[in-house]
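INFO batch 0412 | record 1 of 1 | parsing
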Amino acid sequence: MNKWLHSWRAAIRIARRDAWRSKGRSFLVLAMIALPILGVSAADLTLRSSELSTEESLNRKIGAADARFSDAQVNGVPIFQDPNGDTNVPAKDYGDQAWPTGPTDVTKTFPAGSTVLTDSSGSAKLTTAHGLLQSEVRELKAGDPLARGIMALQDGRFPEKADEVAATTHFLETSGLSIGSTLSARGDTRTFRIVGSYELPNDLKADQINALPGAFLDAYAKVVAASGLDTGGASVTYLVKAPGGFTWNTVQQINAKGVAVVSRAVLLDPPAKADVPLYQKEGWGTFEDSAAAQAAELAAAGTVVGLAMLEICLLAGPAFAVGARRSRRQLGLVGANGGDRHHIRAIVLSGGLVIGVAAAVLGTVLALILTFALQPFLETAMNQRFGSFDVRPLELLGIAFIAVLTGLMAAIVPAVTASRQTVLASLTGRRGVRRGSRVLPLIGLGALLLGGTIALYGSVISDQFIVVAGGSALAELGVVAMTPALVGLFGRTGRWLPLSPRLALRDAVRNRGRTAPAVAAVLAAVAGTVAISTYAASREAQDAAGYEAKLPHGAVSALVMEEGGRDVPQVRDAIQRLMPVDTRADVQRIVVGKPGCAPYSEAPGCGRFELVIPKANECPLWASEDGSDPSEKFTKEQRRKLAEDWRCTENSGGDLPGGAYVEGGLVVGDASLLKILGITDAGAQKALAEGKIVSFAKAPIDKGDKIGIRVIADNKKANQADQERKPLPGEIKSLPAHLVTGQNAYGVRALISPEAAKAAGFTALPFGSVFSTDAMPSAEQRQKLDGELAKIGSDVALHVEEGFVSNTSIVLLALTVFAGLVTIGAAGIATGLAQADAEADLKTLSAVGAPPRVRRTLSGFQCGVVAAMGVILGSAAGVLPAMGLRLTEERQELRFYQESLDQGWGGSQDVPYVPIVVPWETLGAMLILVPLGAALLAALVTRSRGALARREAA
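INFO prediction complete | emitting tokens
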């Protein structure tokens, strides 16, 4: 035992000394191993630090309170909730009936002797240094000890008077205001002074101000209501502290009164799943991942880690071989002084151990330092503060062990190779001749065939991506194992090459032990790059084929839904000033009730309208009077046939550019809108002038060529009637219509002129405008417009139709650069090893009068040959996984499409188009530019003259 320890101790000392002497090579290998360790360790530290403990999460949600009470809005009927308090449903099973809605008095559920703090939230447009900013307004006595932890004070203090507010740091940065500034809400004459800044630990980018309870929202709601607008209401919750807290039994008792509770005691000591009534209801569960899904995730993670370790070993292995080759005389002296083969192996393996340990220590220490130093930037990127700097030693040790293991694995092959050298060959510098293994290529061929079969099975029969990925990884490992044999095949092309590249190629083939690992490393990196690039290019082609333009090319739309469209004139003016506008078409929308009502608002005086679909035009698969699924009345074949019926293929419309929506797609506008949208129907303009509705959908038009519009005066009553399966109340107005078919109206389903709308008794409010342009708006014009709209402070649905825009070009470029760097690194290592092997030959060439450029040329071609072989093999190997994944996606989409046809849903869908596209530009760059660049770089960094020395005797 002592002898073994002493021999390893001596080997480690020798390896440490050699590593110190060859600082450049040692640093290269150390960096290759340490960088992944640095990244993984930093990711572990960041992830663990961002994971909040239950206590930390509670402090941010409910402060120092024992619970947060909130109204479930079910009219006080009993509810079931989950232990977190995030989800709740009525305890009674209402089946197809509507759930009860309405508020309940939460204050009646507070236990006697409780301390209560009201927490109210609403929104308002606040004045800033630039204009207006839509912000959240929170009324909470933040300075109260009960609220400690919810808001983190940064500067100044929390408000103490009714005319004071505090603001989040992000609000101050965005608004251009500071402590001491004043602000007000739009339309409100009151002013508030900012007395402090704070941040929300769970939302660092929140635009929010804090006021005392009752100081802002109630008065602001009255101001808004006086102007005929709708505030949308405020949400109110209560922070409660009571003796003994709130156990799960207490929470359930409060749930019986229609109130949801987030309890500190329950979250710190959650009940068993069997004790949670919500989880016992049919269709409810805890939604945990299945064991199979977890196993698949672990398998995927293991595959990624394994392939990463293989890549590092393939890159670092030749570097250790360089060290062993340059130290062969020293290793020969060890053998001459009584050392046997295991001593030689121990010395070379110790080199991997020393570098692995150093990389583990360096990567872990740098991860700790950088993560701690960059914590503020990481928190900003993740939009939340860390709970604490959480260091988990066992996880970091596990990651560090991977570095040590990688170093040892990278040194195994060089160690075995060095130990097989005879003492005489090591001392004299002879390399000897050794035939390559015949077993390894056969194993590689078997792995290639098996992996290809698995990937083919996964893409053609199975729907599991993990099967395709696993088979592709196995096939790639097979190609790596076959690399020495494939390198030999490349040698046959040397007869057609000039002298220098022929010498470089034959040298690479004759010394496959050093060439194959470098080629395999390049192969692995390029294969991954080609696979991702092929998949990304294929996905881009699919997205381009499925892209639907929202407007004619170059057109611009700006639509405003909020506050009755009062900001529309300012928005129109900004666009006309900053965009190359040719024609403008103003549009309006029909409103029922108060002008300021939000769509579908149930506030008093708020209504809506809808286009009436005649019964003869209703899709039989959708029409239902009792709430049941009408498609169940038909067979699968009948559903497939009905899915192709025009009544079931028409889109209901209403989705306009920029994400705006208008009921039924009915807008108010004139003939200029038809011109911008490219509607060339001869009768459309005439029909519009005659007061008819120009309809781009067939379904709303009845047999008398009229469209019925139901005017619903009270949204609340209409919703209640809909829930009770009763006819909707409201007057139906019938207007003549003109049908336009075969033309794209870009979301507009029907168009009525302002005059016709007024004559029919409709109220129309400004909605926005659609613009045609002389030229495509530039990025600079877009940025200026975004700034102007931000000053206006309105929520504008802005859309500039640029056509399909590719987002993958930068990804493909980054992948190409990555593959190029790995290729140059691996080829450079192989070139260094080749120079170490051929140093005697290079000295002989210099001695016999060869010009200095021969040394550079040969070095460049040696590097280029390795790079070219790796890139060619990697390009071929990388296409397989991408094709497998795309074929799997095609099968899944086709299956979903067929299932939708069986259910009667697929009539309006296109047959899935899942192309496989090879990114030839990326492949061309790698096949030509990367090897060429590697060759030129190697030639540039190689010295023209070596030290002249005597040729050692054979």
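INFO post-check: The first helix runs from residue 2 to 21.
INFO record closed
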